[in-house]
## 1
Amino acid sequence: MKLFLTPTTCIDTKTGFDLSIPLQNNDKNPTAWYVAAPEIEPVMENGWVGAVKLGGAVNFNNIRFNPHGHTTHTECLGHITEKVHSINQTLSTFFFTAKVITIIPEHIENNGVMDKIITAKQLKDAIGDTTVEALIVRTLPNVNKASAQYSGTNPCYFETIGAQVLIDLNIKHLLIDLPSVDREEDGGKLAFHHLFWQVPEDPNFERTISELLLIGDEVEDGEYILNLQVAAFENDAAPSRPVIFKIESI
Ligand SMILES: [Zn+2]
């Protein structure tokens, strides 16, 4: 189905790119923040069997996972506030104008360690004069992201003042293919998160950050319509499925 945005532009609802990483209970599932692999196990209680292959009537699995550590997820300011504000309450619209950009992180020395950083200037240059509500950042090299074991690897992160670039451009939703916008070991500062959500000085309930996306090589840089939805969890973060649709000109 073609959905018209303007008399001369549309999206084709059949041609969306799903940017989420599937959750699975094996070693191939990505992990970050030192969590073990997710568990998907049938309920087995009082002789009841929650697996057809084991003689049960239905498959009935318990799933244990961590949104931040295991899968594509979207979070709100509740990630860093004493009160756990809910992404399910704060994300209330689901279609956004979006731009996909691709960035080669810079290697910058930090206390004797070479960090991989996306700088504010790189963000600014890649965004250009586009006006969009959501920014989707693909980092290079774009390999192994569906099964990466990030814990203890000092993954790529964003220069803190990059958050100000997004605020200044009125970009409300940042989506990245990394475990975090901040450095893995930063002494608990989460500086980018704080600046982006203006916590504690002027908390912003509208902005979201989505992490652990998988943006395939077939997705070209450019402008899209983003459909961003989360599972309805009352929690600071929930699994999400960002789907983008190329804007076509008629
Ligand atoms: Zn997170």
## 2
Amino acid sequence: MNRGLLGSLALPLLLASCVTSSEVSNVAPNHKPKLDSVEAGLWFQVEKMEKRLANSQIVERDAELNQYLNEMICRVSPDYCANTKLYILKQPYFNATMTPNGTMNIWVGLLLRAQNEDQLASVIGHEMAHYNARHSLKKWNNAKALTDFLAFFSIATGGIGFGLVGAMANVGAYGSLQAYSRELEEEADLEGLKLLYKANYDVTEAVTIWENVEAETNADKDATDRTAEDVFWATHPLTKNRIVNIRKWGEELMDGKTHFPSKSNNRFRKIKRKWAHVWVADLLKVTKLEKAVVVLKQQQGVSLKEAEVLYYEGEAYRRRGEPGDLETALTKYKEALTLDNIYKKTYRSMALVSRRLGDNKAAKDYFEQYLQQNPTARDKSLINTYIQQLRT
Ligand SMILES: [Zn+2]
């Protein structure tokens, strides 16, 4: 969202009057704000953003995926199910947000990283808790907070029209972006866990997904400001006590019981297997190698086989292409082949790397093996051209 648009959206909220946090009660199902209220101003802004989003290429419209997530939202928060509108955004970063009028944005980067349905539900539960308690109204209850509000929710819409890097550009532009206060985040964590518990999800998985995302972030040792690179941290700061609290509250809720049987995980796994390759390809386009490798390893045995993890690690090294990376990529591909020699793209990648390393004979052989395994490959004529060139 650019500054020009922010300016044009500003007026209605400036006209709205102020309320204090203590006056804000939980949202009632089917709630509509009074016309002259601050809340009506907030809704006006997000509805405008939503209109842009509804027509955007960034929205994933696959019917099965949308239905699956809509059913999950209804399971986590049955009372507000009818008031929630879902948009799945084709952004490979870990993030989910909820606007004051019940629009939930789930980024595919979250779907990629969740290792089971319970983890995914924990993020949905957290966002539903922000919505149920009307945290946006508690935070942006005066006109001065307008710029922060619009920045927050323009990031929620995933940088419409800016492609994969759009959201990051927005985070950069609003470097001082304010998240919800610590108090509101804690409330969303706790109330979100209660929603999960009621929905018969395993609340302890909420800890695991936070730890996984933290491990991914920490893998980038050179990062000077992680909020500038990780959109989720910009809006959900990982305070020292956050994971500790989530673990403690989760254990209290479970009260010594072991895991609930997770009835839906077969469906989760089927969907993950179907989409993982699409989402990983986008992840590799935007994420630093060290972080991508952590995400890939977390998916081993979930949505990716070991051979596939090795193949994608190879792709990450090939893409970066720093000294020694092409050799490492080749080693990863070869290792992948020892585990599973049917993964179709491996030989092509090996050929491309060998060609860049100047080993024309190996490159030609690998291209030929690729075509042998994929006789109807879409890039067949291009590969044949490469083979011809390598012969001369
Ligand atoms: Zn939050």
